[in-house]
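INFO batch 0412 | record 1 of 1 | parsing
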Amino acid sequence: MDNKRHDEIVSQIEGLIKNGQLKAGERLPAERFLAEKFQVSRNTVREAIKALAESGIVASRRGSGTFVAEGALRHIVEGASRQRTRLNEIFELRKIFEPQIAALAAKRITREQLAELGQVLEEQAKAKESGVNEVELDERFHHLIAQATGNRALLDLYETLSGILGESRISELQSKERYLNSIDNHKKILKALSCQSEKEAAQCMRRHMDQVEQNLDNLT
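INFO prediction complete | emitting tokens
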């Protein structure tokens, strides 16, 4: 199952509760209806509801269905606060880690690796029209830079941390404007790598991390 899609459904159902379309005590629509509404499989909806139940946001009543729990809004607010703290910590980690990776990559990157990064950028520019997963392309871009360091131990560490780093690519931080800003930052990083400028590569990566973190601060 696509965990990112599952998380999106959780966020959308929470949104229905936050804006009052679903109130405490109200029964959630049937899984089939939600699957059609969100254009996902019923299994994805089922897993999303399971996650909401574990968070205390909904409650299942045997033979009756799933209902918005009393105190659901409080649980959503508390969960959002925990998520924001977690994301701040991850961005702190990324700002320590990724500029140094970019600097080392600038020193060692090959023509073939530069070409591959350029290809990813082209795919990112066309992602909206082609239906390619934008988050996966972003992950691939950063992973390729880690590979370009030529340091196997560092790459192993990066891949070990990839799950944690990936948490900072939440759907709430994605929008057309933010995505275009990300592509622009990636272009600047690639240019610095092409010039083999360690200092500029690190600075461009740091500015990229600052920009993405600012997206979090701008969330309402």
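INFO post-check: The domain at 82-217 is CATH 1.20.120.530 (Four Helix Bundle (Hemerythrin (Met), subunit A)).
INFO record closed
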